[in-house]
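Quick one:
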Amino acid sequence: MHQNYHFLKHLTEALRPLTKGLKFMECFSQEKDELVIVLAQARGKNNYYRPFFIRAMLRPDFACFNFPDEFNRARQNSVDLFENLYDLEVTEIRQFHNERALGIVLEKNFTLVFKLFGNRSNAVLFENDQVIDLFHNKLASDNTLKLSQLDRSLDQSWEAYQAANYDHRKIFPTFGKEVNAYLEKQFTLVGAGLASATSAQTSYSIGADARPAPTSAQTQMDIDIKPKPDSIGDIAGGYSQDIEADAKEIGADAHDVGADAKDIRANAKEIEADVHDIRADAHDLGADAKDIRANAKEIGADVHDIRADAHDIRADARPAPTAETKQRWQIIQHTLALLSDTTFRITLWNHQPTLSLVPLGEVVREHTDPIIALNDFYTTYNRIGVIAKEKSEALKVIQKRIQRTEHYLEEAFQKLLDIDSNIKNEEIGHILMANLHQIPERAERVTLFDFYRNQDIDIKLKSDLTPQRNAESYYRKSKNERIEIEKLQENIALREGELEELKNHVSIIEAFESLKLLRKYLKNNNLLSDAPIVSPTQLFKHTEFEGYVILIGKNAKNNDLLTKKYAYKEDLWLHARDVAGSHVVVKYKAGKKIPNSVVERAAQIAAWYSKRRNETLCPVIVTPKKFVRKPKGLPEGEVILDKEEVVMVQPRGL
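Output:
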């Protein structure tokens, strides 16, 4: 809990008298995620007068302060930071309330804040209330921080504890994982468990805002009737009667047009009346909208009252404090007293060095000065913390494998018990064969006497099979049942061996003190992944002859896997000569020469699993695996041999 708010409070109090009044001489970084600040009383010709060094490690996986007595800056690969703070005096060391942040306050309203937020840890420079510079520019969201908003006010009273349904995490978010683990242990010791009650809240949000836009219809029709004038020039005598007749027809057409115009004007008046009615309706709708808005305001006020009533109901519905909750509250208060105490413990918790204010894990050392404690923790973490972390990660992976293997064994044993307790298919077949004459044709079920248990048994049949064929079906099921039992027993033996091997890995890993040897061991034993361990006998065809395991590849890709990953230099490698076929490997036994009879049997298998299977004799290559190479670019299944011998054998399968 070196980043914990409660520890930072102690650290702030210890730093204040040591740094207040000193000047900010320089700040630089010469390693990724690390910055060094030099405070001193004065700048000398070559050195600083009474310097105080602050080293801040701000890695995503580890953020911590360190206060070395001396620090020599490298001549190369070093960059200056926050240069606008140089030669400014430190006026205060500030701890932000209920926050994992510590600030160095300087003249001219500058504050350098160290934000220790786990993988988002950063150094942020403020001028007044605004961010002006960042150490980790990739954390762009830190640019939006306000200095005035870093303090957090939390109600941590008994009433707040009750309101949080007795869940201390809600009102004490500053405890962190170490303190919470300590509290859980204390709660368990007193027989109290934390229970958080959830309350259902229904909020009603009703808002209506009817604003119908008034609609209008307007029809305007302008009818201009302009009789076309007739122009008559000189009229010849013979055409006068025709012209008069045409004039009469034109006059009649004009009369009809005038009548149509009257009808159109009448329709226009009706349309104008309709428009007037529509406008009146729109006015009424507007009045209704005003009423709806007024009702919405009233409903909103009712909703506010409902929510207030719901809050009161929830307050009344909170579970009454019990003896257990009161006892937990007393434990929390005692823990707060521990956090205020100036006893700082370096412990080993979850296989890692930990700085703790509460007794947690294996306590290695105790200090009363927070600066000395933090320096001790920093050194311890960097000395054994890396190996402890990698040990912890490896052990977590192995424990996961162990749990998975134990779960598989439990299920496999249960399946064997189920098979053993059920009536065997072979017994049902015997019962059917002994009572063929009693089974009617096309029966779907039959009740017969079970002479194994001296009671009747109901047997399901296939109606389209004869009684004898039904018995044969049960015999086939019996054969599959035996195969399943054999496979289960084989897998159980394999997983039991795997479980024993995993537990052995745990004891070996816990004893490692060298990081290099630990990493080599994890890599060689394929312990860097939580993928289940797969036995070679699960990946390849296999047999055993005279105590020697013989592995056979299934296809080209499987051949490559066998030769490259599961065959070692002292193993014997075999393949049918000049034809496609399976790679065959005889596993070497330490200190023993592979007998000729085993070599011959493996060669027969290699011949059988090749294109020469049907030949009388087949030449087979035999060579130690160390003479088999697979250069990059060769097709799957193909290899190059540096040395070989050939034996002639008759192909024979497993």
